[in-house]
Amino acid sequence: MDPAITITDLAVDRGGRPVLHGLSTTIQRGSITGLLGPSGSGKTTLMRCVVGVQRVRSGAVTVLGEPAGSPALRRKVGYLTQAPSVYADLTVMENARYFASLYGVPAAEAAAAVRDVGLGQAAGQLVGSLSGGQHARASLACCLVSSPELLVLDEPTVGQDPVLRDELWGRFRAMAAAGTTLLVSSHVMDEAGRCDRLLLIREGRLIADDTVAAVRAAAGTDDLEEAFLRLIKAQEVAA
Amino acid sequence: MNPRITLSTAGRVLRQLRHDHRTVGLVLVVPAVLLTLIKYLFEAQPAVFQGVGLIMLGVFPFILMFLVTSVAMLRERTSGTLERLLTTPLGKLDLLLGYGLAFAVAAALQAAVSTLFAYFALGLDPRGSLALVIAIAVVNALLGMALGLFASTFARNEFQAVQFMPVFALPQLLLCGLFVSRDQMAGWLQAISDALPLTYAVEALQEVGTQAEPTGTLWRDVSIVGGAVVLALILGAATLRRRSG
Ligand SMILES: Nc1ncnc2c1ncn2[C@@H]1O[C@H](COP(=O)(O)OP(=O)(O)OP(=O)(O)O)[C@@H](O)[C@H]1O
Ligand SMILES: [Mg+2]
């Protein structure tokens, strides 16, 4: 089967400055890929390229066999923006129903997505009155409603407690097992250990692109936090 | 374009409005209060009230929908929902028509309330039919919406969005023939006035005020305003970009 995402020599400028410098990688279907890297390294920019909302300078991004951003991909790709993007003046359920309706998905799926992110009790509450973590989950629910083939999640677990994070990762794992491809950015290293593969990005360049075990082996430590620090130092020395 | 998505977008916009009780209250009550003021302002000249009151019935929805739309679109942009929507199967036209439909419903409600209030409580009595007055008010609301949508592209924040109202609306209001009749304006002002859509909306209302049956001028004017709405919507759609820097 062809890969879910193929990125070739992707270069992006933002605000007149180069942000991604000729990045290439391949992501297989039905896998969870962790996208990690320091703040400002270009994680969000890379995800925007995959969903096709980023203007790129050069290079190619192919998603599920089509150029990123093609109309046919719009019902197959779900995108969770880093900042929650839901309507503050609607309830959680009204938001989920609206996004479900864009895909022609029945309201029952919207209710299921709201329950899946642990907001069953708050379904009738206005999003504007939710806590920060609840707000983020409301946004997540809206991108789960359509059961997309590819989910691009920009820091989906930020601001969530350990129990919820564990539940959400359980959900991601179940989706991957059912064939969904997930690209997930994170700052939390214990989450990196739950991925199949890791992409470590630094200043717009990939400095690691491998399985979790291989990243650990390359850095010579089981502690992923330590592994990343070592890889970053090694790259600095090389540069 | 997809009718299902357009309709559900319109429903979503109306639901957002419905949660905002204060806005709904203001939208429905403020025109009636202002009309009452105008009525007593011209107590000694009832004929003037008949003219000005009728025109105001068309001007309120225009200004109101301009403001509501530019702020609503700005919110879509700043909250990230616009970018998110553009990654879904929703088409740009679905979004614009969804907004148009929702605000047309809101404007029809507003126009019906204020027109009936003006007729029964204030004695405003145009020669033509009240239904036509309401219909013209709705077209004006759509004009305000389309211009507001377009203007919101140039606004980075709410302050700027609100400041665009005087830029887009006041010149049209000043030159539409309400304050100084058009044939008394300097030639170059008349020429500008000719190019502004609100001029035709006001003329259409004056036709309804003075003619029992719809006239050719009325239909021409309404078509011109409708054309301006379509043009502004196309310009607005062109400013909705799926890809950004
Ligand atoms: N709209 C923009 N205009 C100009 N530059 C931008 C814009 N958005 C981001 N950048 C710059 O692009 C670079 C990469 O940003 P990006 O948002 O991709 O980082 P990130 O890895 O997602 O960071 P974080 O972990 O903090 O979310 C940063 O240097 C940032 O300042
Ligand atoms: Mg980011």
Which band does the percent of strand residues of chain B land in? under 5%
Largest interface comes to: A-B, 32 and 25 residues
Structural class of chain B: mainly alpha
CATH architecture of the largest domain in chain A: 3-Layer(aba) Sandwich
Give the oligomeric state. heterodimer
* Number of structural domains of chain A: 2
For the sheet with most strands of chain A, the description reads:
6 strands, mixed
Low-pLDDT parts of chain A are: none
Helix and strand element order of chain A: EEEHEEEHHHEHEHEEHH
Largest sheet of chain B: none
Count of extended strands of chain A: 10
Assigned CATH class of the largest domain in chain A: Alpha Beta
Task: Provide a brief overview of the structure.
The complex is a heterodimer of chains A (239) and B (245). By secondary structure, chain A is of the alpha/beta class.
Explain this structure to me?
The complex is a heterodimer of chains A (239) and B (245). With 239 residues, chain A is an alpha/beta fold. Helices cover 36% and strands 26% of the residues of chain A. Chain A is built from 8 helices and 10 strands. In chain A, the strands form 2 sheets. A 6-stranded mixed beta sheet of chain A has the order 6-7-8-3-9-10, with helices on both faces. Chain A has a 4-stranded antiparallel beta sheet with strand order 2-1-4-5, with helices on one face. The mean pLDDT of chain A is 94. Chain B has one domain (3-237). Helices cover 79% and strands 0% of the residues of chain B. Chain B has helices spanning 3-19, 21-41, 46-78, 81-85, 92-120, 130-152, 158-175, 187-195, 197-210, 216-239. In chain B, helix 2 packs antiparallel against helix 3 (46-78), helix 3 (46-78) runs antiparallel to helix 9 and helix 9 runs antiparallel to helix 10. The mean pLDDT of chain B is 91. Chain A binds chain B through residues 13-15, 51-55, 69, 74-75, 77, 79, 81, 83-90, 94, 98-99, 101-104, 126, 142, 146, and chain B through 4-5, 8-9, 11-12, 15-16, 19-20, 79-81, 83-90, 242-245. Residues 43-44, 82, 154 of chain A line the site of magnesium ion. Magnesium ion (MG) binds at residues 43-44, 82, 154 of chain A.
